[in-house]
Amino acid sequence: MSERLGIVLAGGAGTRLHPATLATSKQLLPVYDKPMVYYPLTTLMLAGIRRILLISTPVDLPGFRRLLGDGRGWGIEITYAEQPKPDGIAQSLVIAERFLEGRPSALILGDNLFHGEGLSRRLQAASVASGPGATVFAYTVSDPERYGVLEIGADGRPTAIIEKPTAPRSDLAVTGLYFYDSDAPRRARTLKPSARGELEITDLNRTYLADGTLKVETLRRGNAWLDTGTQDSLLDASNFIAAVERRQGLKIGCPEEVAWRQGWIDDAALARLAEPLRKSGYGEYLLRLVGRR
């Protein structure tokens, strides 16, 4: 099987977070102790993905480059591409087509956070899966009318995806994490813009549903999925991360730690990364990891 490559879509104007995002990208805002983009980035890393394309606006890309660089310090490779206008999530597959070079992909939205026991194992299983098709991750929510909702048949297979239904027949929301075969860019190019002028990710997923090749991974209790598109959801995410980290003394969404635990960097490299970060306490945490091995 071809190597699966990663895509982080960190575009958009963040209008629901104005004025906080008037001068910076939403995905560069902090979620408790780390930039928001660290969380989707480490989700891809937990899936074993080491080559990642970050897509953002022409205005915001320099900020991401300053923050993340080329990723080599974390044992990964990060490259960048522009999305001049927010013309839909599915457009990211079209933009990434040259980067992918016919390989399968994992696409994650830059404002989505995932955490939970066994998550890395499930991500890696989805990442190494071969053959045609797509896999979406679903999560039970109390307000499904805000999301793309999956309807599941008696045999456990998906039968429909309904975008923001007024009367949902399911409480399973499609999260912002998608694993696609190599055909996804071609399929995305065939989509027609929706009424709001965007290439909709739901429409792309429906093409796989129509083929019978759409698979669903449902995140059960013990896993958390948070998006951060509003002031309240951003605060909720920060409070969640703070509560877990303070209680356990561990960090969520820490790329240095993920790279180290994956064996992509060694103790000496982790210590070098930690040194400039010691005053914030983040570096001290990384140094303690080395001492505990």
Question: How does this model look, in words?
Answer:
With 293 residues, this protein is an alpha/beta fold. It is 33% helix and 24% strand. The chain has 2 domains: 5-262, Spore Coat Polysaccharide Biosynthesis Protein SpsA, Chain A; 266-293, no CATH class. It is built from 11 helices and 13 strands. Strands 1, 4, 5, 6, 8, 9, 10, 11 and 12 form a 9-stranded mixed sheet that branches. Strands 2-3 form a two-stranded antiparallel sheet. Strands 7-13 form a two-stranded antiparallel ribbon. β2 and β3 form a beta hairpin. α10 (267-274) packs antiparallel against α11 (282-292). The longest helix has 18 residues, at 231-248. The radius of gyration is 19 Å and the shape is globular. The model has no long low-confidence stretch (mean pLDDT 96).
